[in-house]
Design brief:
By secondary structure, the protein is α+β, with helices and mostly antiparallel strands. It folds into four domains: 8-66, Orthogonal Bundle (Arc Repressor Mutant, subunit A); 80-114; 141-227, SH3 type barrels (Roll); 240-320, Alpha-Beta Plaits (2-Layer Sandwich), CATH 3.30.70. Helix content is 35%, strand content 25%. It contains ten helices and eleven strands. It has helices at 8-19, 26-33, 37-49, 80-93, 100-114, 141-153, 224-227, 249-255, 284-291, 303-320, and strands at residues 55-58, 63-66, 155-163, 168-182, 185-192, 197-202, 206-215, 240-247, 265-268, 274-281, 297-301. Strands 6-5-4-3-7 form a five-stranded antiparallel beta sheet. The protein has a four-stranded antiparallel beta sheet with strand order 9-10-8-11. The protein has a two-stranded antiparallel sheet with strand order 1-2. A hairpin with a 4-residue loop joins β3 and β4. The relative contact order is 0.07.
Length: 321
């Protein structure tokens, strides 16, 4: 059910405009929010009669003002849990300071917290929680700006992309679907007109990017969940394999605490060891994941993955001999 209350964002804007003595009127505010002037008039009426705002209209200035300049929007609608959520959200977003979104969202959060009464301090409110960043790749904000505009306008983009696997740069025309952050790295989910399939491109490997004037039709059922539904991590290509891994009693204690893949099946044994089964697309990410556990895990299936692990072990033996 749609709320009958006007959005707080418009009320904050109206309050700020009045306090800055800009004498806003319904038409100007309506243009800012792309709504009908009657909507703004209802907002102001709500502020007058529900929030006790001393709003008056100055015919000479053709805009509204406060007859009592000491008035502030009441903050009783924000509970302590709401305030805490804003502060924690800002901590989470601090991990993405290299994107255009962080500054805008932080600015909006600061504006909301600015309206709290003087007796409410937020300085130490969220000191009990922290977030640790993992390794992240640097990203050019200019690329994100171009891509987000192309995604909104449904325009194809031309990119020069560095393929790490082949160690070569290729020109491609892609249909950009969405930007995706995975483990502190940014990716472009798009349809590659060269490969004729949906692909995921690392933003830091896009050497150059240019929006074209050609539009495309975005699939109505497109979602990152659908594209990665069989993937073990971020790689979406390759065949689907039934992977069977046997973990030692020691490592099994940690493995069973998490869900590593939506298809996983766990089988525990009396000695504490554990069998993990899952159906995943591609083996490169699985191979890297398995290798980090060393002798605490054995690949039972498929043979192609088991052989790849053997080959890697032989290379490591030569390296350390």
């Amino acid at each position: 059910m749609k709320s009958s209350h006007p959005p707080i964002r418009r009320m904050i804007f109206i309050d700020q405009q009045i306090r800055d003595k800009k004498f806003p009127n319904c038409s100007k505010i309506a243009k800012e929010f792309e709504v009908h002037p009657k909507t703004i008039y209802r907002d102001i009426e709500y502020m007058r009669y529900q929030l006790d705002a001393p709003i008056e209209f100055d015919s000479k200035q053709n805009g509204y003002y406060y007859s009592d300049e000491s008035y502030f929007l009441p903050s009783i609608h924000l509970r302590e849990s709401d305030i805490l959520s804003f502060i924690i959200n800002e901590k989470i977003l601090s991990q993405y300071k290299d994107t255009p979104y962080y500054d805008k969202i932080k600015n909006a959060t600061d504006k909301i917290l600015h309206y709290l009464p003087d007796n409410i301090s937020t300085e130490n409110m969220a000191n009990f929680i922290s977030f640790q960043q993992g390794p992240k790749t640097s990203v050019d904000q200019h690329k994100i700006v171009i891509l987000q505009k192309a995604i909104r306008k449904v325009k194809k983009v031309k990119i020069k992309y560095l393929s790490q696997h082949r160690n070569s740069v290729n020109d491609r025309i892609v249909n950009p679907y969405l930007l995706h952050n995975h483990h502190n790295s940014w990716y472009l989910v798009a349809y590659c007109n060269w490969r004729k399939e949906e692909r995921i491109f690392a933003l830091n490997r896009i050497m150059s990017i240019e929006q074209t004037n050609e539009t495309f039709k975005k699939p109505c059922d497109m979602s990152i969940e659908k594209i990665l539904k069989d993937s073990f991590s971020i790689i979406c290509g390759g065949d689907i394999y039934h992977v069977v891994l046997k973990f030692s009693p020691y490592q099994a204690r940690w493995i069973k605490e998490r869900q590593w893949h939506k298809t996983q099946k766990l089988t525990e044994f009396e000695d504490g060891s554990l069998i993990l089964e899952m159906d995943v697309k591609g083996l490169d990410e699985v191979k890297r994941w398995v290798l980090q556990y060393g002798a605490e895990v054995e690949v039972m299936e498929p043979d192609v993955l088991r052989n790849r692990i053997k080959e890697e072990i032989e290379k490591m033996k030569k390296l350390y001999t």
